[in-house]
Amino acid sequence: MADPRADPSSVTERTIPPPRDSGAPASDGAAAQPERGPARRRWLPPIALALAGAALFLVYLRLSWTVAANSDGAGNVLQAWDMLHGNLLLHGWSLSDTSFYTTELPQYMLIAAVLGRHGAVIHVGSATSYTLVVLLGALLAKGRAAGREALVRMLITAGIMLAPQIGSGVYVLESSPGHIGTSVPLLATWLVLDRAGRRWWVPPVVGAMLAWVLAADAVTLYAGIAPLVVACGVRAYREVVMERHPVSTAWFDLSLVAAAVAAIPVASAALAIIHARHGFTVAPVEDTLTSGAELVQHASATFQGVLLLFGADFLGLHLGISAAGAMLHLVGVALAAWATWLGIRGSFRAHDRGDLVVAVLAAAVVINLAAYTVSLLDLDAKSSREIAAVLPFTAVLAGRLLAARLISVRLLPALAAILAGYVLTLVPGLTQPTLPTENQQVADWLVAHHLRYGLGGYWQAGSITLGSDGRAQVRQVVLRDGALVRDPQESQASWYYPRLHDATFVVLGPDQPPTTRFFGSVADMRAWFGPPTHVYRVGHVTVLTYDRNLLTGLRRKPVSRVPAVD
Question: I want to staple 74 with a disulfide (CB 3.0 to 4.6 A). Which of 109, 314, 466, 473 is the partner?
Fold first, then answer.
């Protein structure tokens, strides 16, 4: 008989290790090591993402404190505080045209449960939202790519959004709740669309997510619903009409169109149900369009607003470090513009189905910018919060569409240098002093003088109430048509009931031109309430005290109620 040791095939056959699931133990530690290596490497990406998220949160929290919390955010904290204490439907509240009811308010409830009724809630909430925007944008940009391209995609997207511009940029992206927070659930929606594939349950889930966001923010119409309808509608038309395929082949796109359209009445019905159960009401959305004569001016404001979103608003700056940092961010603007053009061209040309997420994001950018330009909302660069979704959407487009191109032409070292420059532009912001809540000095003065309940203008009321942790409560009123009435937005009806509260002082802010939220002057207060007992000057505001309940002197005027999305 032949010696089995002389037969190489026999040796190989006898030394094959047992199958992994056979239950046989590994022969030694060295043999088991290759099995543990891949498992360990699978944990590296989520750990790295979590560490990056923690670092970004700390940076953005510090930046947020460089902008003072104001009455916009204070009103949302007070609403969340009311919800936290049982008023989940916000009974008696009249809100602005953006309720944030299903977006920031639940977030604020959780934070307020830990921090209390404090201005820090605004800063923690805004830092959390912006961190999520960067992380979700990076994940969406990655798509199904792997290896070096996946990493480059994520870094391009996160890099474009990395460093908000000091001052106005931080105000737009990281202060009071704004439309950048709406980008969080929208990015999550596009992640579902990207990762889940053409499954039957995807359209109803996407539709439900859009309805959820629309109930909180009407901008979802332009940044989510209309883009999905346009992108999927074009794809379905091309397949069924132009290429003459059966309608059944376009079932997924048509289902997404139906789900997106259905989100509108679903959100309206949800708000109507809340209203019917005596919950909050929302103000109508501004639907007036600009005139032709003002269109150029509005387009200019849109352009500057886009620069601000990308940290590249160098207009009006003196030559120096700030201007150089802003100009460096023009690279991000250029990449975003290039990627948006590629997305539009690739997604809507004939005989090319393209990437559905790319088509939706490209359509969202165009629709959002166009709607903003022809509206009356683009008052100045800070109003760019209305198009805040343009920043993460174009950043994702840049990551998905440009990474492979930039790798192929060997531009990664240049991009790494630019990214390092972006990181350096964060340093001046991190060294800025932290700012207290607006009117904090007045809040402290009122508490020290035992003044507990009074009236004031919008920009004084919420910030003073929050800055004093509710120990000095100021409720906003407006002077309209010669009558002093409750402010119809961001207010609660019970605040103005004389049987519940005793308002004994008035806070007047700096002189301002008459607007829809104009409160009035000292002379107006004397004419309406009579001579005050004392008049104090506290910082930039005037405080008038009275020895009677001022709520009995308010004119009872019904508040307009709009229970549905306009």
Answer: 466
Give which of 126, 130, 164 is closest to 309, Cα–Cα. 164
- The pTM of the full predicted model, rounded to 2 decimals, is 0.88
Mean pLDDT along residues 272-301? 85
Query: Which amino acid is residue 41, in one-letter code?
Result: R
Instruction: Describe the strand order of the beta sheet including 93-95 as a list of residue ranges.
Output: 281-282, 93-95, 491-492
Structure tokens belonging to residue 528: 């309406």
CA distance 129 to 178: 10
- Residue at 394: amino acid letter: T
pLDDT 10s digits, 47-64 = 989 999 999 999 999 999
- Give the pair of three-digit tokens for residue 475: 């409720």
Cα–Cα distance measured from residue 438 to residue 520, given in angstroms and rounded to the nearest whole number: 20
Higher pLDDT, 296 or 161: 161
Average pLDDT over residues 462-476: 95
For residue 516, what are its two tokens? Answer: 């829809």
Dump strand ranges (E) for 217-310: 281-282
pLDDT digits over 191-219, tens only?
999 999 999 999 999 999 999 999 999 99
With 0-12 / 13-18 / 19 or more C-beta atoms within 10 angstroms meaning exposed / middle / buried, residue 540 is exposed
DSSP 8-class letter at 245: -
In this model, does residue 25 exceed pLDDT 60? Answer: no
Handedness of CA 52, 53, 58, 64 (dihedral sign): positive
Q: How far apart are CA 170 and CA 384, in angstroms?
A: 12
